[in-house]
Specification:
Elements (H helix, E strand, L loop, with lengths): L2 H8 L3 H9 L6 E2 L5 E2 L4 H13 L4 H7 L3 E3 L2 E2 L6 H36 L6 H9 L1
C-alpha cells in the first residue's frame, strides 16, 4: 500500500509516517517510480508505535522493543538485558505517575463541572448537621 492509504488507515499524517521511517520504526520499499510501498502488517505496527508514544515511551526505546512486538498489544521480549528491564521499569513508573496526575485532573474537572452545573449532591452528613443547627 502507498503512504496515503497507510496514513488514512492509521489516522497518522504522512509526515509522521516518514518520521517513523527515518527513526527506523517502520520500513518501506520503493517502487520503480520512487513511491513508498508499505506492507499490510504495518497498519498494526503504526498503531502500536502510536500507542507506545502516547504512553510516553521515547522512540529510542520503542526501536529496541519493536522486534518483540509480534501482534497488536503483545510484547514478547525473552532475552531482555538488565539495562532494558531497568529502562522499561522506569518508563512504566513514569506512565503510572502521569496516569495518577491525569486522574487527579479529571476528578478536579468533574468536581468543577458538578459544582457549576448545580449537580453536586450535598453530603448527607453535612445536611444532617445543618438541619440540627
Amino acid at each position: 500500500m502507498r503512504i496515503g492509504e497507510l496514513s488514512e488507515r492509521t489516522d497518522t499524517s504522512r509526515r509522521l509516517l516518514r518520521y517513523y521511517e527515518e527513526q527506523g520504526l517502520i520500513v518501506s520499499s520503493r517502487s520503480a517510480n520512487g513511491y513508498r510501498n508499505y506492507d499490510e502488517n504495518l497498519v498494526d505496527r503504526v498503531l502500536q508505535i502510536r500507542g507506545l508514544l502516547d504512553a510516553g515511551l521515547p522512540t529510542r526505546i520503542i526501536r529496541q522493543i519493536l522486534p518483540c512486538l509480534n501482534k497488536p498489544r503483545a510484547i514478547h521480549f525473552p532475552d531482555a538485558t538488565p539495562e532494558m528491564l531497568a529502562t522499561l521499569t522506569l518508563e512504566r513508573d513514569r506512565m503510572t505517575q502521569r496516569i495518577e496526575c491525569l486522574i487527579r485532573n479529571r476528578d478536579a474537572v468533574s468536581e468543577y463541572l458538578d459544582t457549576v452545573s448545580g449537580k453536586r449532591r450535598e453530603d448527607p452528613s453535612s445536611a444532617a448537621t445543618a438541619a440540627t443547627h
